[in-house]
Write a structure and sequence with these properties.
single chain; mainly alpha
């Protein structure tokens, strides 16, 4: 797996999530069915728990809809905006 330590440093600085956790979550997400609502909700809950943040129900609904309908941006800046309050 390609590792760009500056990205991991940025993630850890802003979320307190370490590189190993990010890589483990990425590996788990690779096999996820992003068309299955239950799988998507589970992934959202796991990411939120790992990052130590609460995802309000309305934000969860928005994220689930965006992911299932392939409306998730591919660039990091736009993607991170989805998780801001």
């Amino acid at each position: 797996m390609y590792r760009d330590d500056s990205i991991f440093d940025h993630i850890q600085k802003n979320t307190s999530v370490d590189q190993d956790d990010v890589q483990n979550m990425a590996s788990a997400a690779q096999g996820a069915d992003f068309q299955d609502e239950e799988s998507v909700r589970q992934l959202i809950h796991e990411v939120a728990q790992m990052a130590g943040v609460r995802v309000p129900k309305e934000k969860e609904e928005y994220l689930v809809h965006a992911i299932i309908n392939n409306q998730v941006p591919l660039d990091f800046a736009s993607l991170s905006e989805l998780f801001r309050d």
